[in-house]
Design goal:
- This protein has 310 residues and is mainly α.
- It has one domain.
- Helix content is 62%, strand content 3%.
- The protein contains ten helices and two strands, in the order αααααααββααα.
- α1 crosses α5 and α1 packs antiparallel against α9.
Amino acid sequence: MSMSSRVPVLVMLLFIIAVQLLAIAITPAIFASDNRVFADPASTSNPFIYMLLILGFTALLLLAIKKKKNWIVNGFIQISIATSIYYLMVAFVSPLQALLPTVAGLLLLRYYPEWYVIDIFGIAVCAGISSLFGVSMTILPTLLLLIILAVYDALSVYKTRHMVSLAEGVIKIKAPLLFVVPRSRSYSFRKDTAPVSTSQVSDQPNGNPNSNGSTDRVNQTGRKRGAFFLGLGDAIIPTILVISANTSLPAGGFLGINLPAMGAMLGTYLGFLALMTTSRDKPQAGLPFLNFGVILGFLAGCFAAGIAPF
């Protein structure tokens, strides 16, 4: 991996770390608000309900992208972002007061979707969603969810490839569903018109598909895009287990983070680094690496703490 590729990888890792630390910090307020995604956090049906929602949401977005109905895609994404921001804010302020930052955030993302705006909101939204789902599910449903999503991500990237099509559509319409790491200070995500293609991925100027390590997508002419991209889901899904472990299992550890949660955090980072060592000549599914890492780290933390997770 070249030095030019290592810096964006480090930045994306820092994004994941920031999401997890912020999610842990806001969880007490989220927990106290009694806002829950599922009525019964221990129900093993919760991950299957989650999957049905994901499948429905993905199918609708893909259909809208295929029909070139970008307003539908943007509308659903904006509603999702607004809901996330609102539920994050009502944990700290009144429902009426939460409306102002929610509306302001939506307007900023709608009319000025620059990379740093998307990244800042991405960290906040990921932390809020992770915390909300983390306090809404105990350990067993959370583990089931991570396993199901890892399998689904692999199938949707390597087999059906519909997740690749969705990612291309999201980048094309500048939807705030990913982290953006620019290659240069002059880069503007708003003005980036490079066509998206999954034909090649490389960290070499000539677009050599045999190179390893880059997370950048290259168009068919071999010209690089001006930034690296990471889907928000790659930060959200592992963090759900971190929060679930820290709220469902006995407290302790360091700064209010118990050993199972700490192990899950470290496992996430190792899984991400493992993902970055894979061949970049084609799109890679991130969740098999990240979820496998976070689960192993969680189990190691449970073992170190002498805690039975079930």
